[in-house]
Specification:
By secondary structure, the protein is of the alpha+beta class. Helices cover 15% and strands 35% of the residues. It folds into two domains: 47 residues, no CATH class; 116 residues, no CATH class. Strands 3-4-9-8 form a four-stranded antiparallel sheet, with no helix packed on it. Strands 7-6-5-10 form a four-stranded antiparallel sheet, with no helix packed on it. A two-stranded antiparallel ribbon has the order 1-2. The termini are far apart.
Length: 173
């Protein structure tokens, strides 16, 4: 008769291996599944950006920029239309972004870049710390009410506001 057995049984060792293997496989599957979906919502400064497996970027010089489109209604005989007329940047740190070039584009829901107006595919602008902006693409005028905002006005808008799915802003050095 055996009173104490300190070596353990073969059954207890075999139970630990499948459990450890199962946990390892479950961890790999969880990382693969959640790793591709957790980036769906991103918060930049105080505003949330939601995107579905796309790419969202904050400009490197300022992470609190807000980009707001503005439409203009054109009355026409029988049917009028709203056109993308302005794009406004607010909450801009002009000192941090001084000398940086911003590129603003409009995108359709199919993921293709849209033409803003005749000959205007994107708005390109260099930020100036004292005036918020000093230059822009031909066909776009620039004005600013303060060093924290820039208003871009498309001179002859042709893009239907309903066709714009999203606006993006990129920074070049």
């Amino acid at each position: 008769m055996e009173i104490l057995n300190f070596e353990g049984t073969a059954k207890s060792k075999s139970k630990k291996k499948p459990l450890g293997l199962l946990l390892s496989v479950a961890s790999v599957v969880a990382v693969a599944t959640f790793g591709s979906t957790l980036a769906e919502g991103v918060t930049v400064s105080s505003g949330a950006i939601t995107f579905g497996q796309g790419v969202a970027q904050a400009t490197a010089c300022d992470n609190a920029i807000t980009l707001t489109p503005g439409a203009e209604f054109t009355n026409a005989s029988g049917a009028g239309s709203f056109r993308l007329k302005t794009v406004k940047i607010t909450n801009l740190d002009a000192n941090a972004c001084n000398g940086k070039t911003f590129i603003i584009k409009a995108w359709g829901d199919t993921g293709s870049a849209l033409t803003l107006a005749s000959g205007v595919g994107e708005i390109t602008s260099v930020v100036n710390a004292t005036k918020a902006s000093s230059t822009a693409t031909t066909g776009v005028t620039v004005s600013s009410a303060a060093t924290t905002e820039i208003l871009y006005t498309i001179t002859t808008p042709t893009l239907s506001a309903g066709d714009v799915y999203k606006l993006t802003i990129e920074q070049q050095s």
